[in-house]
């Protein structure tokens, strides 16, 4: 798969800020043929250090709120300025995804890249905690790391080289996510699918980094654990 938008961000400085498999490429595939109008107010939920937020503002023309619990707004503000963005284009917000501080029906859309699985596995989350902040007819574009087939009853030894069973509980298969999403009364499931990007390529950009988390993940991926893993995307529309 080609990633024309992502290529411009393929610099050592930006790659050093990623927190998992390449978020630019994941987001670009997820947003292929998206239906969010340019100029929309968009929440980048679980935005990390703001990489995906920059892409949403610069390449898609959205007014972005970069919402994350573990990143500091002042640091993200400095980064956004260095990337040529203004406060009118992008705003960092330190917040828990389960306790969002926005006005009801504030967002035209929500985008979440490679993080929703940390909080979205609660079947009540969508209706109770997220959709109230999205306008009727607004879209949610989400992608998560997943498993090709659920194997929690017999976890492969390759996966346990890097992660504990508790950490692997965040990785689920597409059937699991279909059940979670179909539980929602307030969202229409437009699509849910296994992403087509090359897993080895997406992981390689991360495994090349020298931080301790990436180094630890090399154990599983180097032992062939990637054959059990995939990325899952879903598109929802608020009723």
TrEMBL record:
Span of domain Methyltransferase type: 44-142
Keyword check for Transferase: yes
Origin: domain of life: Bacteria
InterPro entries recorded: Methyltransf_11 (IPR013216), SAM-dependent_MTases_sf (IPR029063)
Protein name in the entry: Methyltransferase domain protein
Gene3D superfamilies tied to this protein: Vaccinia Virus protein VP39
GO molecular function list: S-adenosylmethionine-dependent methyltransferase activity
Keywords, ordered alphabetically: Methyltransferase, Transferase
Keyword Methyltransferase: yes
UniProt-listed GO biological process terms: methylation
């Amino acid at each position: 798969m080609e990633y024309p938008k992502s290529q411009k961000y393929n610099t050592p400085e930006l790659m050093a800020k990623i927190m998992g498999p390449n978020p630019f490429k994941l987001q670009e595939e997820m947003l292929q043929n998206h239906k969010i109008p340019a100029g929309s107010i968009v929440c980048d939920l679980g935005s990390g250090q703001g990489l995906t937020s920059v892409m949403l503002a610069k390449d898609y023309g959205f007014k972005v709120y970069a919402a994350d619990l573990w990143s500091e707004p002042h640091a993200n503000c400095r980064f956004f300025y260095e990337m040529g963005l203004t406060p009118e284009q992008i705003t960092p917000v330190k917040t828990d995804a389960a306790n969002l501080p926005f006005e009801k029906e504030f967002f035209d859309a929500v985008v979440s890249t490679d993080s929703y699985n940390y909080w979205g596995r609660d079947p009540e989350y969508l209706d109770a905690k997220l959709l109230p902040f999205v306008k009727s007819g607004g879209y949610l574009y989400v992608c998560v790391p997943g498993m090709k087939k659920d194997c929690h009853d017999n976890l492969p030894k390759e996966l346990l080289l890097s992660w504990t069973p508790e950490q692997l509980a965040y990785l689920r298969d597409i059937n699991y996510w279909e059940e979670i999403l179909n539980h929602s009364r307030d969202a229409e499931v437009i699509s849910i699918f296994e992403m087509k990007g090359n897993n080895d390529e997406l992981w390689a950009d991360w495994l090349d980094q020298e931080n301790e988390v990436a180094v630890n993940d090399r154990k599983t991926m180097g032992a062939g654990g990637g054959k059990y893993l995939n990325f899952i995307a879903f598109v929802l529309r608020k009723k």
